[in-house]
Specification:
Layout lengths: L1 E3 H11 L13 H17 L5 E3 L7 H4 L10 E3 L7 E2 L8 H12 L2 E3 L6 H11 L4 E4 L15 E8 L3 E5 L1 H8 L3 H11 L14 H11 L2 H8 L8 H9 L1 H11 L21 H11 L2 H12 L3
Parallel strand pairs: 1-2, 1-6, 2-5, 6-7
Antiparallel strand pairs: 3-4, 7-8
Helix pairs in contact: 1-2, 2-4, 2-13, 4-12, 7-8, 7-11, 8-9
């Protein structure tokens, strides 16, 4: 099980009231919400391995160099050295180090790699996996990794993590008309304002799905632009032709990397806290009470 950690703690932050605080009055709604998410996921899905994948760089330079608008609207501060600062609610950013400390003390593997997003870490773990993989994320970009033949699914939270959309290829075909492999091409053509991806003007989701059904993949669509006999409307042909510079670089930006240099890490689900004293201290310091206790009890129950 691979967690898109930032996606989940953002959801926890907005789903759990900010009135949930530590003894000193510091909000810990994202921390407690994430622990409750993980507890529920372990109870319901019984993973053998669990990795909390992190954004070491939420806006990698190699993506921005190709498409400068990539996530540009979410930049709070540009930095010459290191990743740009992302716009994060004032009461969420202080909770992230607490989340990291608690995960480490409990013994849940936490992996971020410099120069890469969590999506890329997830993509690489998935590529290396020898068995089924469940990816837990609120980010549809990771639908591109869905692969029935390899048992790769996306568990997409609909309401908390108690209600999850179990996304396999049948779900993708029903909703989008593509399988996992085709989803990246669909997203590229359609564009995604939330990621600053312009897409091809005039090519929405339904049109993109029809073009992919007709021509197979992005390369087939672009080959059709040069084929006067291909079934493209004059408008589609013109817009795709004018979008060649974008189409040439967008696949590298949109597709999840599968070759990230991952560190050696113990991914087995912990059966007890790695550092019980530190867990107790963190629980007391941040008032994590029942949320942390339930997760520890669940982990011990998996022995």
């Amino acid at each position: 099980m691979l967690l898109d950690t930032a996606s989940l703690y953002f959801r926890a932050y907005f789903g759990v009231p900010e009135s949930v605080k530590a003894p000193d009055g510091t909000p810990v709604n994202a921390v407690r919400g994430l622990l409750e998410f993980i507890d529920r996921l372990v109870k319901d899905h019984h993973p053998d391995e669990l990795v909390a994948c992190m954004d070491a760089d939420w806006r990698p330079r190699w993506r921005v160099d190709l498409i400068p608008s990539y996530k540009a609207h979410r930049v709070a501060e540009e930095r010459a050295a290191g990743p740009d600062a992302e716009e994060i609610p004032d009461t969420l950013s202080p909770q992230v180090p607490v989340i990291e400390a608690v995960l480490d003390a409990v013994g849940i593997a936490r992996v971020g790699v410099a120069g890469y997003e969590a999506d890329d870490v997830i993509g690489t773990f998935t590529a290396r996996a020898k068995g089924p993989v469940d990816i837990v994320t609120g980010d549809r970009d990771l639908y591109q990794l869905v692969d029935d033949a390899r048992g790769v699914r996306v568990l997409y939270p609909i309401k908390g993590v108690g209600t999850l959309q179990i996304t396999d290829e049948a779900v993708l075909r029903e909703k989008y008309g593509v399988d996992g492999r085709g989803y990246a091409d669909l997203a590229l053509l359609r564009g995604d304002p939330s990621d600053g991806l312009p897409g091809v003007p005039g090519i929405g989701e339904k049109t993109a799905a029809k073009l992919l059904a007709e021509f197979g993949d992005l390369a087939g669509i672009m080959a059709a632009v040069d084929d006067p006999k291909a079934k493209l409307t004059p408008s589609q042909r013109k817009r795709l032709d004018e979008s060649r510079p974008y189409v040439a670089v967008a696949p590298t930006v949109v597709r999840v990397a599968g070759d990230v240099p991952l560190p050696e890490v113990e991914t087995a689900l912990p059966r007890a806290a790695r550092d019980a004293e530190l867990v107790a201290a963190l629980g007391a310091r941040w008032g994590l009470g029942g949320s942390l206790g339930r997760l520890l009890a669940t982990l011990e129950g998996t022995r």
